[in-house]
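Students often ask why we bother encoding 3D structure as a string. The short answer is that it lets us treat folding as translation between two languages. Here is a chain of 761 residues written in the first language.
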Amino acid sequence: MTSLDTPAVDLAPADAAGPRTGVHAARLAPVLFAGTLFVSALLLFAVQPMFTKMVLPKLGGSPSVWSVAMVAFQGFLFIGYVYAHVLSRMLAPGRAAVVHLGLLLAVATLLPLGIAQGFDAPPAEGVMLWLVGLFAVSIGLPFVALSATAPLLQNWFVATGHPQAENPYVLYAASNLGSFCALLAYPFAIEPFLTLRDQTMIWNFGFAVLALAIFASAWMVRRKAQVESVAAVAPPLGRRIAEWASWTVLMAVPAGLCIAVTAFITTDLAAAPFLWVLPLAVYLLTFVAVFRERPWIPHAWVLRLIPYVVAPLAISMLGGDKVHWLAIITLNLTAFVLIALACHGEAYRKRPEPARLTEFYLWTSFGGVIGGVFAGLIAPNVFNNVYEYPILVVIALAIMPGVFSGGAAHVMRELAPPAIATLAVIQLYLMLDVRLPVEAELTMQVLLVIVAAMMLLQATRPARFFGLVVMAFTVTGLWQAGVRPVEVVRSFFGVHQVVETADGTHRLLFHGTTIHGAERVRDPSGRPPIDRPVPLTYYYFGGPISEAVDATRGARGRLNRVAAVGLGTGSMACHRRSNESWTFFEIDPEVIRLASDDKNFRFVSGCGPLEAIVPGDARLTLAASSGRYDLIVLDAFSSDAIPVHLLTREAFAGYLSRLEPGGVIAVHVSNRHMELMSVVAAVGATEGLVTYGKQDDQANDFVKDYRAKAEVVVLAKSAADLGDLPQRRGWRKIEPRPDVAPWTDDYSDVLRAILRKKFGW
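And here it is in the second language, the structure alphabet:
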């Protein structure tokens, strides 16, 4: 009699082909099954960055594309595990193998991978659901089939009767090792050297190899009959529900953190596979490290180390900038790795007997879905800032062993001091509206270091440490020296903050940690200005962007029509003259709303009227516009990162189609982390354009005059179209470098752009 709660497998060591053949086959089983799982995971996790990169140009290069993609992948993984669980319960291993091979054959008819028809452009609203639908229709079935392979093969491995089948969970390490290798290889060995077309061809070949390996694995269990299981009887329902809940939570936290950490470190750099894969790769490597009889790092050591990375993380996550980006990435990844090791180690420690293997994977994958949905779909629509990140860190600390042990009275005593301090901080913020001047930044940093030291001194008291971490997140989330939040909003494209300086004289717009415009709103005496607003930051009169506009105007006599890609605060509107028609193209509706509101900034109203502000991705809306322009200014940023899809040959072909003869394209390429002048020059050379660039060195101290040094590139058919710009101070001709290939929608190399900026390569 077969139970629906245990897998029906035959543990006999030999199959019907004969004792000697069965023994030899059993000896080969670990190698064959581990190798097949490795290849399956290699393909599964190579397709994630590959296909998401295909989709990126359609969504404006937003880091949220990867967050939503991760949610979709987690959902497909869960569906695959449900399919594997049901198949293992309903059919004997041999028959289940036939069904799975049939599914792989159906997937083969859908190859090669590509974006499905009907998903040419995203809608104005509901972009996240549209993106999930795109992934589901385009690669949902292949992903489900590949994800089901891991639990199915582990279940079949039990059926081979091999001595190592007593703990098939170790094969999960082989699967995750394949995943890790795929993710590590993509940015370093695949993306810099292969186009997307080449990548899909190689992936198709790998799928054929996998199908043959699965067929060989299925051949080993082809004769295994469905018999009464010798496994232990399933535990009572109450205990099983507790186990399900524990597995789910322990997997949900690292899965959610994977998305939150990725969004956090990519906001200022670039939405690119090079940075996507780092958190996901180390996330998968933690499974390899702990899903084994002897973990790489003892579980007790991991628990002791966590406070030493969470303490500095708690005082730096919500405040400050990311100037020292390598240190920030290292800290966040280290904390993430330790938390993932702790959670996954706890899950492995609580794993059930092999008879319930697919049940375990079903609930752990469900936890992945829960964590992904929270961080990738719910949080961006509920929170106006990246609060899901600290929330997940706090939950991770709460589920660690010992935090709430010792009884309710003991826990209350431990939590009382930091809880009282946290409530006092909140009350002080709400009632007194305290502003910290920029001069208080050093004092604030010293206080935060003291808080971190207090946390470390309490590292052996889990409940007290937990309370101090909550207090640190509260303080850094409420206060930043030098500014006071006016409005904070969040969209698919990131977090926008309108802030006012502590002295009340200026208002700034932040996207992520980068300032996207500033306006003087009061003089030192507190009186508002009555004159036309004056652009600041990168857009100040006399800066490189201003020079590009003036030189083009001088070369043509006048500017009839100008297209500006990227609105920001609307600073560029004040470079318009009364007889000129300027059109702005802005992808983020929240930016349009913030810039158009006089309560925030007066550039749009005070320097208008503009011809229009066109919502949507400029690559699509600019190419679809009916007009032609004398000047196109590309000034689109996602925090400090320029969307890669706006710098490709295909993008420039669209710009050129809307450019008047003799017109000019000006590109703002200021970036703390990537060297992009040579990329633009390479693209320009392929289109027959001359390129000039300037790195500003004229701006003074930003705190005093709110001017920022811009790096600008201009392109035209001939130098004559640029007027006197080539003769102006600081401008130089940019020749294409032989070692920098032009970027296309099929190829880009963010890693080398970062290395050139960092090391001057």
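Translate back mentally: Confidence is low (pLDDT under 50) at residues 1-23, 226-232. Keep this in mind for the problem set.
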